[in-house]
Amino acid sequence: MDKERQLQEDLVWNAGYRMNESLRMIKICVEQLSEKQVWEKPNESSNSIANLILHLCGNITQYGIASIQNLEDTRLRDAEFTTESGYTKKELMKKLEDTIDEAKRAFYEAPLEELLRKRHVQGFNFSGVGNIIHVTEHLSYHTGQIALWTKILQNKDLGFYGDVNLNVKNETKNI
Fold first, then answer.
1. Fold for domain 3-154?
2. Mind telling me which SUPFAM superfamilies this protein's record contains (predicted)?
């Protein structure tokens, strides 16, 4: 395998891994909340967990699917924040899971040329690689917000890494 293809596969695999981790954490949060709590806002200038999930679906679709696959951008960003009901917890999670799966598939299927091509999204000029990085970090950013709001609502540790020893030191040799 040539180095370019190896780098592409490693980038896509790692982005997918990080997206799966965020999805896993969001599921843990949503499972602990009531249908009412997922729509509850901490205050008027903040978003509910449901709104954040709708926002993530819109952002991932715009940057990670439509842009990478050269599809029409049909995102209605403002609706992601103004919607106040209409989805159950199960429907929200299914929508997020399906969106993440579709984005990972778009990343994997994109030829190297498409990952290097510059494109305009939301007024920004990024390559496909830039869009993958954006999708991954944006998902992670809002996962942290969802986790914080869940901790506030539940007043308990979420146990994201309960079965992992996070105090293990880095190994200095190559694996």
1. Four Helix Bundle (Hemerythrin (Met), subunit A) (1.20.120)
2. DinB/YfiT-like putative metalloenzymes (SSF109854)
